[in-house]
Amino acid sequence: MLSLKKYLTEGLLQFTILLSLIGVRVDVDTYLTSQLPPLREIILGPSSAYTQTQFHNLRNTLDGYGIHPKSIDLDNYFTARRLLSQVRALDRFQVPTTEVNAWLVHRDPEGSVSGSQPSSGLALESSSGLQDVTGPDNGVRESETEQGFSEDLEDLGAVAPPVSGDLTKEDIDLIDILWRQDIDLGAGREIFDYSHRQKEQDVDKELQDGAEQEDTWPGEGAEALARNLLVDGETGESFPAQVPGGEDQRALSLEECLRLLEATCPFGENAEFPADISSITEAVPSESEPPGLQNNLLSPLLTGTESPFDLEQQWQDLMSIMEMQAMEVNTSTSEILYNAPPGDPLSTNYSLAPNTPINQNVSLHQASLGGCSQDFSLFSPEVESLPVAGSSTLLPLAPSNSTSLNSTFGSTNLAGLFFPPQLNGTANDTAGPELPDPLGGLLDEAMLDEISLMDLAIEEGFNPVQASQLEEEFDSDSGLSLDSSHSPSSLSSPEGSSSSSSSSSSSSSSSSSSSSASSSASSSFSEEGAVGYSSDSETLDLEEAEGAVGYQPEYSKFCRMSYQDPSQLSCLPYLEHVGHNHTYNMAPSALDSADLPPPSTVKKGSKEKQADFLDKQMSRDEHRARAMKIPFTNDKIINLPVEEFNELLSKYQLSEAQLSLIRDIRRRGKNKMAAQNCRKRKLDTILNLERDVEDLQRDKARLLQEKVEFLRSLRQMKQKVQSLYQEVFGRLRDENGRPYSPSQYALQYAGDGSVLLIPRTLADQQARRQERKPKDRRK
DNA sequence: CACCATTGTCATCGT
DNA sequence: ATACGATGACAATGG
């Protein structure tokens, strides 16, 4: 456990440091929450070259770069990860069969409402008023509430038994509208059945007209274009490949409507309708005729009310989509998603893969992002205008309260929708009024946080485009400022083969050496010598191999060399009194070079040169050893295990100076190898980090894409929920058979899955209260 | 001569 | 307490 923590911490720190060195500013948390593979790798160690890193290393690192280890939060990471996966799984979410219970709540002053409510007990008390939903923080709330809302509706629709209800003309109109909405939203194809194709085509034709007006697409016939662009009529966005999906969506929406109607059969009766909705606090346009209602509901999302994900978010999404195309990093899913012909920018950007479970329909995305669409040069003015126009046409239906719509949606709680009531925890059941959604919390914490992090990351110059570029260059040359990193790699290349093995071997060797030393197991020090990086071993071996021959110390040289070593100073006087001992094991050539004064032997020029060469090959410690007449090789001194080393020393009667020198030689020699190992390890670490950076960038790109997909699907679900809400609400009738005014009443999901019709004021209050919660929690 | 990379060495810390 | 490895810092060296 401890080691794992260490690895994690160090790896992340090092990685962060490297990134900072490279010039990429990285939010560690972001990567923690988004990069699993690298993280795991770091934790497990394979990629961490600092397997033997010491604590002081960490300390130094921290000191040097001011990175706080606390920034690493595994729990958050895993939690976010899990939650995200859950959220992403919403598409395949299995809606549990539930009972639909609806209660009509009369608009009583205050407390009376609660009395009329079922066991679920809505938290009307908590209501603080949703009036000003337009506030800056609306975005988050809105998204949360919308999610819950959509979820509930989804459940409702799925649960409701299919019934062939008799649709009135009005209903059909509504359905058509819903169809279009679905198309715009890019609802998943697989979701829909093809039963209503015929009808859809009619609608498509209408849309085609609008689509054809738009600019022509490069490389594709006008016909094909018209066909493909059908969907965009309302939103002004074009999805070349999405048409089929759009049809499907329509079909689906219709079916859903039918089911919903069926489920809510008892419409006229006492305003009671069965619905499995957790909490619909608002989302009902204040005033509106049937057609207008939907528009109003949708308009918030389509236009600019998508505040939860601000402009930058939108930007990100779009950019990520584009970059995804550019990058081949895409996973299989991504590839599936983007199978549009690369040539056409629009087509590529907005094409929907027919088979993708999650709709990649960018147009939908943009539709919801209307507010930010202006920022995109990519979109032709026409395209931009289209969505607005479409929404505007619909808007008239519920002109009075665009804000009310926003507020209502903003306050809605998604949590209950996405997860079955039982999953929502006890809080929901008991604290109905407060409508605390576990899911909402989850979404809030995980998804939104991630999103915000992503935004932040992009904000800080790590934009998707760059990432994509980097991605492209990964194989050849990383666009990252890794020039430096590359150079090291090239530098290390000579050792390349050894570097990778060295890291592993070094660690193993060190461990083995230590173990052997401690256990005194190693009988052959030569092995240990081979273990290290020591290049000296070769020279030493050579020297040793040359055999022991008489050796004449050259004092002048010794003196020069020994002055560095304090221990030598003391020994110098001693040396003067020592006679030449030719029995030392020293290389004869070396002896010659050292012993023979150049002037004395003019005729041995070549030999002398060789001697000089060999002499130069000798390390300073070797010279010192020779000067001190150490009876064994430095290699032995350095590499012999402690026990053998001591044994060796005991065999000879060595002076204090000699012993001191020997110990220094051993110390220096070991340290020398250690330094070499350390440097190599450093290099390996850098290389590994470099690779990790690349991996992380790849992962980031992938996660961005996933995020885009998720957001897209989320929007789709929101749209559906809105539509369904409208449908249900529009069909509610009071005792007198009159429809309820959206401005005065709203549907609300209870924690137990029931749906209540409550006065809007209460709904707003509740919604507002809910909105406040997550915020507080975050702080 | 300045600059840079490499290498050796020392001091220090942790095991 | 000792030996040892790891590593930052410094210096020597060579290009």
UniProtKB/TrEMBL annotation:
Compositionally biased residues, Basic and acidic residues: 605-620
Pfam family, one: bZIP_Maf
InterPro entries assigned to the protein according to its UniProt record, in alphabetical order: bZIP (IPR004827), bZIP_Maf (IPR004826), NFE2-like (IPR047167), TF_DNA-bd_sf (IPR008917)
Keyword tags: Activator, Cholesterol metabolism, Coiled coil, DNA-binding, Endoplasmic reticulum, Glycoprotein, Lipid metabolism, Lipid-binding, Membrane, Nucleus, Repressor, Signal-anchor, Steroid metabolism, Sterol metabolism, Transcription, Transcription regulation, Transmembrane, Transmembrane helix
PROSITE patterns linked to this entry: BZIP, BZIP_BASIC
Matches recorded under PANTHER family: ENDOPLASMIC RETICULUM MEMBRANE SENSOR NFE2L1, NUCLEAR FACTOR ERYTHROID 2-RELATED FACTOR
Name recorded for this polypeptide: Endoplasmic reticulum membrane sensor NFE2L1
Gene this protein is translated from: NFE2L1
